[in-house]
TrEMBL record:
One of its GO terms (biological process) is nucleoside phosphate metabolic process. Its cofactor is Mg(2+). This is GDP-mannose pyrophosphatase. The lineage of its organism: Bacteria, Pseudomonadati, Planctomycetota, Planctomycetia, Planctomycetales. It comes from the Bacteria. Belongs to the Nudix hydrolase family. NudK subfamily.
Amino acid sequence: MQKKSDEKQLLAGNRFDVHAMELVGSDGKTYIREVVRHPGAVLLLPILDNGDVVMIENYRPTIDQTLLELPAGTREPDEPPEITAERELVEETGYAAGKLQHLHTYFSAPGICDEQMFLYLATDLTAGDAQREAVEQIENRIVPIDQAMQMIRDGQILDAKTIVGLSLYQMMSPTT
């Protein structure tokens, strides 16, 4: 299948839009696929001086569960990901980073969405007050990195972006 240039906007949302994309199949027929058009997001891996990771317990109303996650947030349209990373770290955790290092960029769910995730290592952290949105139900949780990896293996961490972020960090770490 190859993409045609024709897309029709089905929904204009606050954080993303939904489009209908026309694709031409190898059989010559036209197929319609719905796709989420997303401005992208950042994922933060805040590491304290002792090596522990700042995670959040985040209530997700879409699934009616509280998940243990790395802090993350949606970019404003055309906003540089570094700016989003600085803002979201403070908003969700209260910590400010003295240093941000881009580790990786990946697509979150390319079968249905064009969202790119920008993973940043945040170090030289300074604690402060979180500036959470009124609808967010978030609590900080400090976790040793080895314990976080064990929690992935034990099925206690279910958030995909968090699994990706922690796993990439572990793979890239010079001590492994």
